[in-house]
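Open question from group meeting: does this chain pack into something compact, or does most of it stay loose? Before anyone orders reagents, we agreed to write out a predicted structure and look at it together. Recording both the input and the output here so the notebook holds the full record.
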Amino acid sequence: MTRNFFQSTYNKQKLFNLLGVNIIAIVDYGCGNLYSLQCSLNFLNLKSTITSDPEVIKSADKIILPGVGAFGDAVKLLRESGLDSIVKTEAEKGKYILGICLGMQLLFEKSYEYGEHTGLGLIKGEVHPLSNDIKGDLKIPHMGWNALNIKDINDPIFKYTKNGDYVYYVHSFYAKNCDKALLATSDYEVSVAGLVKSKNVYGAQFHPEKSGDVGLNLLKAFAELEDR
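Structure tokens returned:
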């Protein structure tokens, strides 16, 4: 094999696949906190690649869809790049996907963040402003540490997590009408959907990469999910 072969991210991916090494694709569509997430995966000795290459995403063992910023801008970038259809196709094939923060919100059917926007539709529900429902003195955005109220402790994503563990949030919008997908919530006057799931697609409203050992344990459990 030539040096140019190894310099190609896709060819590195193919080599890892041949060697039986699992790779997590971190989708780079221009709206994500990519490198701190990859640092967390590196700390766990998990192989990952930051990529916008459809072939690399297709050949990866699992996919993480990060995201920071506005829903409308993010979903537009996803669609313009064609990565929306790649993520949806891989989800339909049964590949495990984890959306983080805005990445989680993109998984839903619709968002009402500064207008009305259509999401990926991989999880039933919509995203609404916290300001519509919080009537007390709590500040928006919901920013800081909050406890997880786990609804289904037997889900494998909680392999290393216990009820009441604290995670770190930064968000002004939250998922609603998604009761069937709820795995864990946090209380912030309203019940915030902290972790959701539909089949092989997971979403975390909080930031695992900012949530200390609890976040690392969730990422570890995600990496260990077995093929469907």
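Observations to bring back to the group:
The chain has one domain: 3-223.
Helices lie at 3-7, 9-18, 34-43, 54-59, 71-81, 83-92, 102-106, 212-223.
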